[in-house]
Write a structure and sequence with these properties.
6-stranded antiparallel β-sheet, 3-stranded antiparallel β-sheet, 13 strands
């Protein structure tokens, strides 16, 4: 007797009937109809302000707006002269445009090793990046970072990130330290 099992022995064994594919097609059709009604314009009056552990921010684009945009989060961060944002880290990249003011960033880059388990460490000494109006700042994934305004002028930063990584199940965001009080 030959006890060797072949693929065709298992091909039609299943766990019951379903309609996953048809359900997905119907959901996609309903989404496309709803999506066609979404706004492609967000006015300043629709952009809420939030005081949080990272300081004062104005949300420019967020998935809760229900707009046609599907991948980008953006906010304007306000930093008082001589003050700082909170320190935080997240798994997605970020780019920041300096709208107004001068200051600097501190970045504590992350390194990790994969052996039998992950080992995460951040640099103990941060890298310092001076910036001014018109500059772009790049934040690598999971880098501890904090923004500092020079004395004498308010800083306004446009912070832009891609939310696709969050939807892939890597929505890791940690507030390491809060911003100084107002």
């Amino acid at each position: 007797m030959n006890d060797i099992l072949k693929e065709e022995d298992f091909a039609r064994i299943h766990g019951g009937e379903c309609s996953f594919r048809a359900d997905d097609a119907a959901a996609s059709k309903a989404f496309r109809a709803e999506y066609a009604t979404r706004s492609r314009l967000i006015s300043p009056e629709q952009m809420p302000m939030e005081r949080c552990d990272d300081g004062l921010i104005k949300h420019l684009m967020h998935e809760r707006f229900g707009s046609a945009e599907m991948c980008v989060d953006a906010y304007m961060q306000f930093i008082e002269p001589g003050s700082a944002s909170g320190k935080h880290r997240h798994m997605w990249e970020e780019i920041i445009f300096v709208m107004a003011g001068t200051g600097y960033d501190l970045h504590w880059d992350m390194s990790f090793e994969v052996e039998d388990e992950y080992h995460w460490e951040w640099e103990t000494e941060p890298k310092r990046y001076e910036w001014k109006r018109g500059d772009f700042i790049y934040i690598p994934p999971f880098t501890n970072h904090q923004h500092f305004a020079n004395v004498g002028e308010e800083v306004r930063l446009i912070v832009i990130s891609n939310r696709i990584i969050k939807k892939m199940g890597v929505d890791w965001f940690e507030q390491v330290e809060p911003a100084p009080g107002p």
